[in-house]
Structure formats: structure tokens, C-alpha cells
Amino acid sequence: MFIDISEFIANNPPHRGHGVAVSDVDGDGRFEFLVTGYGVANRVLKWVGTKLEDVADPVLADVTGHTTCMVAADIDGDGREEIYSCNEESEQSDAAQLDRLFAPFGHHWLDLLGQAENAAAVEGIAGHAVAVIDRLGRGRYGFVVIQPGEPVVLYEMGPGGRLLDVAEDAGLDQSVAGPGVLALPLVSDRMDLFIHADGGANCLFRNLGDGTFEEVAEQRGLADPRQLGRGVTVLDADGNGLLDLVCAVRQGSHRLFLQRAGGGFTEEAPADFSLPSHATSVIAADFDNDGLEEVLFLNHGQPNRLFALRHEEWTEIDLGDAVEVRGASTGAAVADIDGDGLLEVLVNHDGHQPLALFKSAPNANGWLRVLPLTVAGAPARGALVLCVVAGRTQRRAICAGSGYLSQMEPIAHFGLGETHRVDRVEIRWPDGSEAVITNPPADRLLTVPHPPE
After folding, report:
1. Phi, psi (5° rounding) for residue 375?
2. Residues of the chain with pLDDT > 70: what percent?
3. Which of 18, 22, 185, 259 has the greatest CB tally within 10 Å of its CB?
4. Alpha-carbon span 260 to 441, nearest angstrom
């Protein structure tokens, strides 16, 4: 399936790393990989000609940080994404301010969490995982920060540009530790929040539509207590029109939670699919553009594994170069970084190894990529996109991170198989706005502005 193209990463020394994210860091309309560095500089890898080159601003590079996770979203509604960075405490750390929230000001970046006016809200915050959520549908996102043994934090931008923790007002201030976090319209029409717990029960916060949430994991069949969660991803695994969850477990069987009518879930992972491994990340994407998403398990110290639907059954298939028999995979993200319609996977490692970049073998299958925008023109993370081809509907949720310390590109990628024709595309934004585009051209990126009010 995959070809190793790591030689296209310029200056790729061994290092210890964790998460990977995708955002338009420099505001030029193209997306870059953000790569966390643990005790070394973070990197921003931009496709320049035929190479991925590091173009990180010194502030984003943050050479003194011990960064584990990054995600991006527009917190202030200016059309540019801010970047939240989780940092672990170390001998060189300032324990009063560990995490960062980088905001762009023209070509320069500023850490909002380091500003005096925000000191009271951020003291001692060292996030273990983070995702983004537009709970009110305003096109302004909050950063959901998970800390082991501490209540969930939800940072939003308040009056005068001050950061406020509104988790208590939103009903999210429960203590749960989990490195896998998803925000998407899973069991409601707005953005819900799922936290894959590392010990203890998972949490599913259902959006009530007024900016508040209720925790419903147990009643929906997702609590799954006493497992050690890692990555989590979402896809319509059984083709019934509802989004399902794949949960990677550190020590135990991996889960496939299928959603049923009414919003309940049942665990139905096939035996091979659930086989225990030292998994960190799990990613669902249509890597070969055949119209069906594959599920990629990235393992630490064991071969990676790839599953695809074959004759309506999940079957392990050949990974090619991406098997990484002795890899120490941690975070990873997918993006079509070179714009040719095939997805790349950038894998970070926690074992003083270089980054690895993999790409699907070239094929003639059709494709369509859909980028919904907010009112301000930022990526509409959490939007739901449907693509209808020859009467069959595919569903994608625009990634709001972090499946495992990472965040995918904010684009819905659809493989079309042998056809190069699309019947229609349907988009639902986090505020409930909808758009339908009939017969869009295939084999290209379709950028869709937010509908006028």
C-alpha cells in the first residue's frame, strides 16, 4: 500500500517526538505539518518544490519546550488559526506556565498564555491532550485541555482578548485522563466531545445545543471502564450512515464501537482487528482512493497494521514500507501535502528516530477534497461533509484533534474509485448551516465558504 518517501524531508535527524498537526501556519492558503519536539525545536514542514522544509518561526519552534501535542483552530474569529501546544514539565520548565497558545499577528507569533492578563487562568496548566470545539456555533473555537487527575479545561476568548476557562459553565469540568480526544457531531447535530480514557471510563459529552453538555457515555455504550486508551478515530465503518469509533488500547483488545439508530453503540471489533498490540495512534482515511476508508494502527516497537474492507469484512492488508517493524511510532497525521490527490502520512517517533513520511502507491482512482470555511474564512473544524457518488454516500468529519496527540488536515478527503464524477456534496457547519453542491468537478480541492446568513 505505502511507499516510504522520507527522503523528501529536508534535514531529518533522529529526535524524540510525539504529536503531529496540520494547519495553514503562514496564511498562504496551503497547509503545513506541525511536528512536536521534546527537548528540541518544534518544526513547521512546508512543501517547497519537491521537499518538506522547516519554516518554523522562532516562537513556534519553542526550543525550550518539551512539547507533546499540538492542535490548531481559530479562537478569536480573525480567519487565522491559533496553535495550542501541550508541554510536559522538566527541569528547564517554568511550572507556572507550561502550555503555550500561539497566535499569529501578521508574520509574527505571540504566546497568549504567557501574557500577564492571562496568568490567573493558566497557572500550572500542562495538558496531556487537547482538541478544539465550537460549542456555540459562532465560528470561534475553544481549546479543550485534558490533564491527568484534573478537571477538563475549556479555554475560550473572552472580552478584551482575555482567555477564560468556561468548562464549568459548559458542563465539561470532570476529571478524566485520556490522550485520545475527538470533537464532532457524533450523537447530536452540534459538536460533541469524546475522551478515550487512559484508565477509568471514557466520557461522551453530548452537546445540548445551548453551549452546554451532558455526559452520556455509559448510557450510549461507550464507557468501557478499566481499559488503557490511546488513539481514537472516527468513520462510518459499517456503511449505515452513522459515524463509528475505533479506539486503540495500550494493553488489551482494540475496540470498534458501531453506532446504531438512536445513538447507542455496540462493540463489534472482529478478532484480527482487535488483536492486542502496543498501539499509540489509529487513523481512518481512504489512502488508495477506492471509496472506502482504511484503518491504520501505528504501534510502538511492533509492526504497524492496516485494515481494509474486503467483501464487507475488515481484513488486514499489506502495509508495504509503512510496516516499520522496529518503529517507535507515537503521533501521526495525514494530509495531501503535495496536492496530487493522494494522502501522505507523517509519523513521529518516541525513540530518537527520524520522522517517517509514507505515501500510497499511485493509481488512477478519482478523488475529491472539500474544505469548508467559517464565516471568517478559517477551516471549519467539526463540520460534517457528505459526498454522494453513484448513489452511495460517504461521510467525513473535519478533524478537530487529537486522536493521539495529533490533528489531521481540516479537509474532507474522498476517494471515488474508478469514477471521476460526483453527484453532490452536502456540508453541515457546527452552527447548523447547510450547503448542497450538485455535480462538483472531481479530482480537485473544493473550497466552500460559510453560507451567508
Report:
1. -55, -35
2. 98
3. 22
4. 33
